[in-house]
């Protein structure tokens, strides 16, 4: 979204860019919550639509740590769906981004590693497992 031009052809300096970004952040959050809720209910089509839109928005804003988080969430949905190969690829991409862009987010990396381990150890609880 570009600032509107005023009648003199100059950019309007009063454009509320920070408000725009705040609204985008709220939308990303809402899409993420909707996507994860849909995945927990087994509605994977809705889950992927919401999470992929949130991911696209985060990428458009250049929010790399948020991108890593959303990729982790997509990996969880793939895991719940039983698409192990896609889950692994998505978790791997999340890890690559997190290691490069979010080194101070150690708790996220621990969570991501646990999510990846669910793909390899059937004794671990699968994310979203209602029997857990």
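^ Assign residues to that structure.
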């Amino acid at each position: 979204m570009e600032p509107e031009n005023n009648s003199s052809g100059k950019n309007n300096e009063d454009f509320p860019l920070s408000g725009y970004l705040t609204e985008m952040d709220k939308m990303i959050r809402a899409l993420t919550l909707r996507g994860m809720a849909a995945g927990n209910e087994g509605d994977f089509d809705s889950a992927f639509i919401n999470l992929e839109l949130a991911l696209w928005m985060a990428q458009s804003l250049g929010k790399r740590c948020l991108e890593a988080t959303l990729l982790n969430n997509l990996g969880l949905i793939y895991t719940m769906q039983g698409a192990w190969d896609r889950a692994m690829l998505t978790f791997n991409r999340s890890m690559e981004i997190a290691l490069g862009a979010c080194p101070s987010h150690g708790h996220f990396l621990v969570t991501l590693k646990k999510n990846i381990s669910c793909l390899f150890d059937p004794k671990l609880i699968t994310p979203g497992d209602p029997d857990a």
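The chain has one domain: 17-117.
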